[in-house]
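Morning run. Coffee first, then this:
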Amino acid sequence: MNYAVYGSKEQALTAKKVIEKMSPPHGQPSNKVVCFVDNADFHRIGDSNDNTAIVSIYKAKQLYDEKDVQGIVVPSSYPHTVFWDMVDFCRKVGFPDKDILTIPINVLRGAPADDNRLCTLDSLIQLYDVHWNIRIDCNLNCRGCTVCANITKTKGNYDLSLFQREIDRLHELVPDVFLISIMGGEPFMNPQVCDFVEYSRRVYPYANITVTTNGSYLFSTPEETFQRIRKAKANIKLSLYPPFYSRTDDFIGILKKYDMDFHIEPVYTFSKCLTKKPHTKPDTLTECRYFCKEVRDGYISRCVPAFYAYKLNARFETNLPEYEGIDLFDPSLTGKSLIKRLRDPLPLCAHCYLDEERLQFYTWIQSKNNNDEEKDYFWDI
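And here it is:
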């Protein structure tokens, strides 16, 4: 079986190696990747990588029409939005969904050979990202906080045993997850942060695992904590807020001291996407690909703001549609039905704009004395 692979660099090369190692169906010839598709850098068209030609997607479609390739493979190792943009482009040029194929992230990251398989889009049971807020409150109190940590009346840590049951159940349903984020609030305010990281790695050995922090607790964090996070092959994502800009070099110094894998994202602005008044019917909206999935109290949400609409309603006496989420422990739930439901629009979609033309950005500011205002969250004020 001959295939084209979307991309021409690292992800595509890995996909090629996996595809050509797969055992073909009985009686079928061995798998072969005959071309890479690069539609981002046209200067690469006509070149080759690993003795494989780099072609345009239009040439790949021609090869498909002439039956020289049996499908196009889009590696699932690309970022979520990039992956679906690639899929959409394959559709636009005429590839049918049945022959737009992919490879589960676990396989691309070295899962055992008996897991190797090419999947159609419909049969791929995989989530790009899932996160848990392991500390309900936060010491930074950003105005307009996405998870409303600054206006919550509840403080404390997420229950570790509940988390363990949730992630075990999620793995039963969805064995492939690209990224697990351990977040807050501020996760390093939870003294069991390492237990969450280590259990995540035990359940999902091939996932990327990230602890997202504002950095304020790094200097008081014991060396053992860094060692355990590093041993679990997790990384630190430092969201660098204005009060800590002057300590950037100190943060980097302590992370390098303990040989941590880390990356830093400076925060200058926040954005607001919600509207108090509905702007359209939710069932007319396309799939939202931008918000990650959050698990809380045995439920999973396709959208973070939907999980916290009840807090905004309580704080500002608004009337946003509230959403409990999907019950992970519903015995009738399957991986396929979960993926489908996570793609379905929610009532809150009628109160949300995510397109860049209508997203509103404002300079980050700290909340003092719980003085958040509606204008920090809603742009139709």
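The chain has a mean pLDDT of 90. Good start to the day.
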